[in-house]
Write a structure and sequence with these properties.
about 150 residues; alpha/beta; Rossmann fold; eight-stranded mixed beta sheet; 3 helices; 8 strands; globular; DNA binding
């Protein structure tokens, strides 16, 4: 499995997360979006409700009454009660090598203008390269995502 690293240079986290969520849910999949702060996840929650007038992305937050049936679940925890096979790590949430095989797709989305976030992503890249998984680095180029590097 490929572990995807997305460096945000111009696109917002909200836009990138929304695109991932739309595509995954559109294919019948479920997504867990793991962050590090409830306040930031609350902002993403609000964004998913209002990002477009003509679209709806069913979602909820961990701890809600119906978390297990949500196609998109926002959480700070490592347990994934909605059974998602796609994991998005945002706002400094770190990879846990032991859980990689629990997912079909993992993407770490980080702010390329934040030195600490970039250093953490590099450390996680090195972790992935020590596993049987392939690390794939994506960066923005004229508003499009372009694969820039691949391990192994």
């Amino acid at each position: 499995m490929d572990i995807l690293f997305y460096r945000l240079d111009g696109a917002t986290l909200e836009a990138t997360v929304t695109t991932f969520a739309e595509r995954t849910v559109g294919r019948g999949g479920r997504v867990a979006i793991r962050g590090t702060a409830d306040a930031r996840l609350n902002a993403l929650d609000a964004h998913l409700w209002t990002y477009r007038d003509d679209a709806f992305l069913p979602h909820g937050q961990a701890g809600d009454d119906h978390e297990a049936i949500q196609p998109i679940l926002l959480t700070t925890a490592t347990d994934i009660p909605n059974g998602a096979k796609t994991l998005l790590l945002v706002d400094g949430a770190r990879l846990k090598v032991a859980e990689l095989d629990s997912f079909d797709r993992v993407a770490l989305i980080f702010d390329g203008n934040d030195d600490a976030a970039t250093q953490d992503a590099r450390a996680d890249w090195r972790l992935v390269t020590q596993t049987s998984h392939t690390a794939v680095f994506w960066s923005e180029d004229d508003g499009r995502w372009v694969e820039k590097a691949r391990s192994g």
